[in-house]
């Protein structure tokens, strides 16, 4: 799995007018892509470090554009959020995730791994979201604790409904993770007031593990997560050295190229 999947290039900056034109084109393309099912949901494995077991996966959406090639979700999710397209895309991803859980179950994966889906702001603001997810799960006879929801720190700051969403999820047994922890102009406020089940430590902290300062900070975050009874997932783990240090510090889960790239369901089932 050592090769790049083509989604890692930085988005190029463009003059505003060119951007607007490009945006309109991209938007109509995206609308068509959704109809033609050009969007693919990939699964990136999440390893329990002590056992080496794959405990679950994160669902990451991909768009294979007919002319532009692979378009990064970092690009088109933002665009979709500016339009109403994020609503059907979000629903599509959640339904795919539930179907994938069924396939993993049918292949006899025991215990059944979890799959985590990323939520957009629109989804957080939608009071019907949890019930719709429950309907998807019940229709397939899936336990709600196998579907995790990920919300980023910046979304949490902007969406007052997040507390209600977490409470609703917990009342039905669905876990919620705080994504990209430690990035942006963040503070510890969300962790003070909100009861997350999992914290995903941003890759920038894992990169910093080559310095004593980084090791010290990650050590403190491991202790904080434990004190809050939150599972900690290290994101962007690329080297054995990083995993070794995380193991020593007591971080429970690792996600990143070292463990595996985002895979098609077919590739996941082959492992
Ligand atoms: P994220 O939630 O932080 O997802 C992790 C990103 O890090 C993914 O980028 C993944 O491919 C990349 N990654 C994983 N391991 C490594 C590693 O070892 N090294 C490096 N350098 N990168 C690694 P991706 O797939 O391009 O997704 C970008 C962002 O797009 C995601 O960031 C997430 O915020 C958003 N996104 C993806 N799928 C969805 C979706 O279905 N719905 C919503 N709302 N957002 C999504
Ligand atoms: Ca995520
Ligand atoms: Ca993340
Ligand atoms: Ca990120």
UniProtKB/TrEMBL annotation:
It is found in: Cytoplasm. One of its GO terms (molecular function) is cyclic-guanylate-specific phosphodiesterase activity. Residues 23-271 form the EAL domain. One of its GO terms (cellular component) is cytoplasm. It comes from the Bacteria. This is EAL domain-containing protein (Putative c-di-GMP-specific phosphodiesterase class I). It comes from Dokdonella fugitiva. The chain holds residues 115 to 385 of 385 of the full protein.
